[in-house]
Amino acid sequence: MKFLFTLAALAASADAHYIFNILFVNGQRQGGEYSYVRRNTNAYNPVFPDILDKNDLRCNVGAKPGNTATFTVKAGDKIGFKVFNNELIEHPGPGFVYMSKAPGSVKDYDGSGDWFKVYETGLCRGQANSDGNWCSYNKDRLEFTIPAKTPPGEYLVRIEHIGLHEGHKNRAQFYMTCAQLNIEGPGGGTPGPLAKIPGIYQANNPGIAYNKWTSSPAPYVMPGPKVWDGN
Questions:
Q1: How far, in whole angstroms, is CA 148 from its chain's centroid?
Q2: Which of 37, 120, 126, 143 sits a CA distance of 20 to 30 A from 135?
Q3: Are 54 and 176 in contact (CB under 8 A)?
Q4: 93 in Cβ contact with 164 (< 8 Å)
């Protein structure tokens, strides 16, 4: 049985990589690849736990303030981030969305302020050793609804998926990008808990250094802060 799990792990490591670079709003595509998402320099390749204490954890390698356009949405809109080139999320693991309000124009913001988590998705059913039990597995996007009481303003919106197929070797794979959104609405909420990036994860967190390749894997524990309750 252990031999079969090892073969499966090797096969999984060869699966396609992915990057979230296409914005959808209320089911409608907005622009093309990287129209509203900061362009990273490592293409669709993952980063590994050695990035967890670096500023590149915010928006990915090379994704800096610059000329990326900002799209205006409303609190309560459904936002999606689609994988490039009609690819799919082909690794098991959790997905997250974090947001950080820019102090001014988001195109000039480096993400050094406070972040809060607005969405997470993990297991939908059963145990972690079956890839299809992960809610995001073989999907082409991550989607969430902007909380209705989100304070209006310009935000970096950080989309992330963590591939856990090599977590047992301390090589979890991180796929993330940042979109630039101007959020309109009445506000009224107080986002939290707040955190800095880097600082949301440690390499030895049980949800990162995770072994799914057993016949009875441990219950999965989401890494990072709790999701804002919207109030």
A1: 21
A2: 37
A3: no
A4: yes
Would you call the peptide bond into 193 cis, given omega within 30 degrees of 0 as the criterion?
A: yes
Is the peptide bond preceding residue 206 cis, with omega within 30 degrees of 0?
no
Q: How many CB atoms lie within 10 A of CB 68?
A: 19
Cβ–Cβ contacts within 10 Å for residue 50, how many? 10
Q: Which residues contact 111 (CB under 8 A, 6 or more apart)?
A: 55, 58, 59, 100, 156, 158, 178, 197
Model pLDDT for residues 126-159, shown as the tens digit of each residue: 999 999 999 999 999 999 999 999 999 999 999 9
Do 178 and 157 contact (CB within 8 A), yes or no? yes
How far apart CA 122 and CA 144 sit, in angstroms, is 14
* CA–CA separation, 131 and 55 (whole Å): 30
Model confidence pTM above 0.85: yes
pLDDT band of residue 53 (cuts 50, 70, 90) is very high
Q: Which helix (H) or strand (E) holds 141?
A: strand 141-145
pLDDT digits (tens, 9 = 90+) for 158-203: 999 999 999 999 999 999 999 999 999 999 999 999 999 999 999 9
**Residues contacting 150, CB < 8 A, separation 6+:** 75, 99, 183, 185, 187, 189, 191
CB 61 within 8 A of CB 41: yes
Amino acid at 156: L
